[in-house]
Amino acid sequence: MRFNALSVLRQGLAGNTGWRPHWRKPDPKPEYEMLIIGGGGHGLATAYYLAKNHGLTNIAVLEKGYLGGGSIGRNTTIVRANYFLPGNSEFYSHSLKLWEGLEADLNYNVMHSQRGLINIFHSDGQRDAAARRGNAMLAQGDDAILLGREEVREILPYLDYDQARFPIYGGLYHKRGGTARHDAVAWGYARGADQRGVDLIENCEVTGISVDAGRVTGVTTTRGQIKARKVGIVTAGRTSQVAAMAGLRLPIESHILQAFVTEGLKPCLDHVVTFGMGHFYISQSDKGGLVFGGDLDFYASYAARGNLPGVEQVMEAGMTLMPMIGRAKMLRSWGGIMDMTPDGSPIIDRTPIDGLYLDAGWCYGGFKAVPASGWCMAHLMATDQPHPVARRFRLDRFATGDLLDEEGTGSQHNLH
Length: 416
Ligand SMILES: Cc1cc2nc3c(=O)[nH]c(=O)nc-3n(C[C@H](O)[C@H](O)[C@H](O)COP(=O)(O)OP(=O)(O)OC[C@H]3O[C@@H](n4cnc5c(N)ncnc54)[C@H](O)[C@@H]3O)c2cc1C
What we know:
The chain has 416 residues and is an alpha/beta fold.
């Protein structure tokens, strides 16, 4: 079923009785050509592009819970292409271009909204860094505008300018940045993959990876054994645990990141805004809630919920930047598990085991990466060659020292 104005009209007249489920609920077959472990954004996008770009459809996505129940449905939905380092820059640029055509491609409304992102800076040093980053973005072919304090005030009059603890010097404006509805992204990719014949198997936890003479042969799941020639681990926060099933030890730590949403308010915040003197970012959802978050909880854990010191840090940063949000009532908070690498950049690569591939290490920036990650992981699994925009995301960089240290915070997983 395709979505268009006519189908919406027809369904309206028919009392919405003709809509069909977005995807089937097949039982697993004993064997597939390829398996994707993990039905989050990256796993579903990988399956979609394997089918769409490479014509490979004898594929199953194995998800231990329900599709979209992991971090894909828990993030603060920021989409941007403002990375600095060669290696990251071209990848996120590619991703943003895919976002810009995603709804037409998937025939699905993911509510992608390019409302603009402004990174506020508060010192001369931060202005220099923003100018450098902006130049790198322009050199990559993306957009960036360096704003002075009064230009920021015109766009964001509600920030604290006059009695600010950290005076605002200006902002780096990325007009094509914005947000998208996170779970709709999972549903859109799931529907697209299912329509092309991919089996999406929920409630199917992978509990073992079978390896014979250095080559992957399949997996053990809570719904039986499944054979496959190629297997992709795309399990985000659970990557280390799943890779350990194949005897792999990865340079990834899992940390908690929390997010918060207020009660619905009238439209008051029409950009994504980030605070330069603390880790804080905020936007307003189409339902009206202010959606915001901050830093990791600073300890490794697999619990998808955070602790009060994290809450305090985020609230303090929010109040410092934008005191008006103190008037809003916080409605909900939740946590997700982040797969943190030592250099803050991801991995899309083969593993030392033939036929076993890895897409991981998304830290807290993996939502915006979903389209390009799926595109590049599908390319890798189909051709055994890295895609040109993901060629620096090698697993062996942690052994060779050829790191992609975007934030320059060294080997501290919790500082990225
Ligand atoms: C609070 C928060 C805010 C964030 N904000 C942003 C943001 O604003 N912008 C941005 O770009 N990124 C953001 N992120 C990061 C982004 O959400 C993640 O990097 C990204 O979603 C991770 O990839 P995924 O969607 O594939 O993960 P997930 O949705 O977690 O998918 C992994 C799936 O693997 C499944 N799985 C695990 N183990 C097994 C197993 N053994 N067998 C079968 N299935 C298994 C899980 O159940 C899960 O569904 C944020 C994350 C959080 C938590």
